[in-house]
């Protein structure tokens, strides 16, 4: 079968191995469920506090749900986390690439929420998942009680020239000579902290996962002004993909109920440290528990 996600059967196996490896990192018991959607069956990881309030979490592009959930240990002690694998962006996601210039992805996520019997949720999205979270909140605001975005795509983009210099040339060099040294040079502009497992997983995706070069379109001012629910935005100070100051400047004044924070020295991929995980858990809990 020809796939829109993996290149070869052997590559599919390696991608699944990394997926399972990160599932094993999750600190609380994990269950899996399949829910029907208009675009086919969709896989969801469920973990966290058994009777906790639901928090739907959306992962970044070319990763998968356990890669996000494994970084959310403190959050799992306070919430029931539902993490679907996104279409075309995860080895366990639906085998389809949905358009980015309409609400197809949002309709998919609404179907997932319906399948999980979640009427209204707190929604947290990272990077590409942040784009989908914002799109869903714009499409169906009544389904999202609170919206949290971290290094979100689709708000403000970085310089194409700067991105070319910092990522494309190192990518070409790595493709020609895929050494550990060239992998490190490729990833240093986007990783806030070095992590061997994350680097190994990304190396696997570079070898075994098909490229999707589409960039989520920027939300219109009208789209943003529809986000009337409480919204938290955590932006990276040194994010070359979606510069934190530009993201915050665009959102301030357009969202009526917004809480923003510029994460110091944070690149596009936030730190993978216990200290950052604790901080994120506290920051999300503070926002989600706010009675206002």
From TrEMBL:
Which residues does the UniProt record annotate as the domain AB hydrolase-1? 54-160
Protein name in UniProt: Putative carboxylesterase nap
Organism, as annotated = Roseimaritima multifibrata
Q: Which GO terms describe its molecular function?
A: carboxylesterase activity
Q: What is its EC number?
A: 3.1.1.1
Source species, domain of life = Bacteria
Q: Membrane-crossing residues?
A: none
**Mind telling me which GO cellular component terms the entry cites?**
membrane
Alphabetical keyword list: Hydrolase
Q: Name one Pfam family in it.
A: Abhydrolase_1
């Amino acid at each position: 079968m020809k796939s829109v996600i993996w290149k070869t059967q052997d590559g599919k196996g390696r991608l699944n191995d990394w997926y399972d490896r990160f599932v094993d990192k999750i600190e609380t018991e994990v269950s899996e469920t399949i829910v029907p959607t208009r675009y086919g069956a969709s896989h969801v990881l469920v973990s966290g506090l058994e009777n906790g309030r639901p928090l739907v979490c959306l992962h970044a592009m070319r990763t998968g749900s356990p890669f996000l959930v494994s970084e959310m240990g403190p959050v799992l002690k306070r919430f029931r986390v539902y993490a679907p694998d996104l279409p075309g962006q995860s080895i366990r996601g639906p085998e389809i690439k949905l358009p980015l210039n309409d609400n197809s992805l949002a309709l998919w996520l609404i179907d997932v929420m319906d399948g999980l019997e979640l009427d209204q949720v707190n929604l947290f999205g990272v990077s590409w998942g942040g784009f989908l979270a914002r799109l869903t909140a714009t499409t169906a605001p009544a389904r999202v009680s609170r919206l949290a975005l971290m290094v979100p795509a689709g708000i403000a983009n970085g310089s194409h020239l700067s991105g070319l210099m910092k990522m494309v040339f190192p990518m070409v060099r790595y493709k020609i000579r895929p050494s550990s040294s060239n992998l490190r040079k490729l990833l240093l502009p986007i990783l806030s902290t070095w992590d061997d497992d994350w680097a190994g997983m990304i190396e696997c995706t570079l070898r075994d996962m098909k490229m999707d070069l589409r960039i989520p379109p920027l939300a219109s001012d009208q789209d943003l002004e529809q986000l009337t629910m409480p919204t938290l935005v955590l932006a990276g100070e040194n994010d070359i993909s979606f510069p934190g100051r530009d993201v915050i400047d665009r959102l301030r004044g357009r969202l009526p109920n917004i809480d923003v924070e510029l994460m110091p020295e944070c690149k596009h991929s936030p730190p993978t440290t216990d200290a950052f995980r604790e901080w994120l858990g506290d920051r999300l809990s503070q926002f989600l528990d706010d009675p206002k």
